[in-house]
C-alpha cells in the first residue's frame, strides 16, 4: 500500500551546502592560536555532524578536553565563524534546481541541522532566500541534537504531516538514525561528507548520487511504498 510524500526535511551542511572548508579554516585558526595541532580539511568531514561541542571535543588534543577548554573552543570558534562562515561555502551542484523543482510539487520543505540555530538561519537566508522553507531549525539550548527525533517530530507536527510520510534527506549516519528514530524515510546523499558504506550500514532506505535522483524519486512516484 502506497502513502503520499507529505514533507521533505533536509540536513544542511554536507547536504545542501558544502561548508567544510570554512568550518575547517575557523577551527584550525582556533587550534593554531592555542598552539594545538591542526587537522587537514578532509579530516573535518569525519569531525562534523553532531554539533559544535562535539566538534570541539574531537578537534582538540586529548590533553585539552576539559569542559572549560571545550567551552572556550566553542566560544572562540563562534567568534571566527561569525565573520568567516561564507568565505568559500556554496551550494552543491544541482541543489538550486532540485529545490526549485520540489517547490513546484507543493510538498512542504524544511531544514533540520546540528549547526547552531543562529548560523543555520543565516546560511539558509543567504543562500536559499528564494526557497520557501516552512521550517528552519538548528541546534538550540535545551533541545537534544540529532539523532534524537524530537526536533524532526516537532517539524512534522508544525507542518501538519505524519512522520511516516516524511522524507529525511542527509549525508551522514546521524541523519539516517534521526529518520529511523522519528519513523521517517531516510535518503542518504553521496555528495556530502560520508561514504555509501557508512550510509548503508546506518540503514538508509535510499542512497543517491546526485540531486537529480531525489527529484526523480519524488516526482516519479510522489508516494512511498
Structural class, by secondary structure, is: alpha/beta
Domains counted in the coordinates: how many? 2
- The low-confidence runs, each spanning 5 or more residues with pLDDT under 50, are none
Given the C-alpha coordinates, what overall shape results?
globular
Describe what you observe in this structure.
The protein is of the alpha/beta class and 225 residues long. The protein has two domains: 3-18 and 90-224, HAD superfamily/HAD-like (Rossmann fold, 3-Layer(aba) Sandwich), CATH 3.40.50; 20-84. It contains nine helices and ten strands. The chain has helices at residues 20-33, 52-59, 67-84, 95-105, 117-127, 150-159, 173-181, 196-202, 211-221; strands spanning 3-4, 7-10, 17-18, 90-91, 109-116, 135-139, 166-170, 185-189, 206-208, 223-224. It has a six-stranded parallel sheet, sandwiched between helices. Strands 1-10 form a two-stranded antiparallel sheet. Strands 3-4 form a two-stranded antiparallel ribbon. The longest helix is centred in the middle third of the chain and has 18 residues, at 67-84. It is globular.
At a glance:
The chain is an alpha/beta fold and about 220 residues long. The chain has nine helices and ten strands.
Amino acid at each position: 500500500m502506497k502513502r503520499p510524500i507529505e514533507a521533505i526535511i533536509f540536513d544542511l551542511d554536507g547536504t545542501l551546502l558544502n561548508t567544510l572548508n570554512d568550518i575547517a579554516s575557523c577551527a584550525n585558526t582556533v587550534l593554531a592560536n592555542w598552539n594545538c595541532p591542526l587537522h587537514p580539511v578532509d579530516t573535518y568531514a569525519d569531525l562534523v555532524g553532531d554539533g559544535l561541542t562535539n566538534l570541539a571535543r574531537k578537534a582538540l588534543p586529548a590533553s585539552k578536553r576539559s569542559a572549560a577548554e571545550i567551552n572556550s573552543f566553542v566560544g572562540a570558534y563562534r567568534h571566527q565563524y561569525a565573520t568567516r562562515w561564507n568565505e568559500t561555502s556554496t551550494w552543491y551542484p544541482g541543489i538550486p534546481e532540485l529545490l526549485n523543482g520540489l517547490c513546484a510539487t507543493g510538498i512542504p520543505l524544511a531544514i533540520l541541522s546540528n549547526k547552531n540555530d543562529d548560523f543555520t538561519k543565516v546560511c539558509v537566508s543567504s543562500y536559499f532566500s528564494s526557497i520557501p522553507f516552512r521550517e528552519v531549525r538548528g541546534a538550540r539550548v535545551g533541545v537534544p541534537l540529532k539523532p534524537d527525533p524530537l526536533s524532526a517530530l516537532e517539524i512534522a507536527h508544525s507542518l501538519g504531516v505524519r512522520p511516516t510520510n516524511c522524507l529525511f534527506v542527509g549525508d551522514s549516519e546521524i541523519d539516517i538514525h534521526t529518520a529511523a528514530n522519528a519513523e521517517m524515510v531516510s535518503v542518504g546523499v553521496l555528495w556530502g561528507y560520508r561514504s555509501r558504506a557508512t550510509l548503508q550500514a546506518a540503514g538508509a532506505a535510499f542512497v543517491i548520487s546526485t540531486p537529480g535522483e531525489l527529484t526523480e524519486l519524488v516526482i516519479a512516484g510522489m508516494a512511498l511504498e
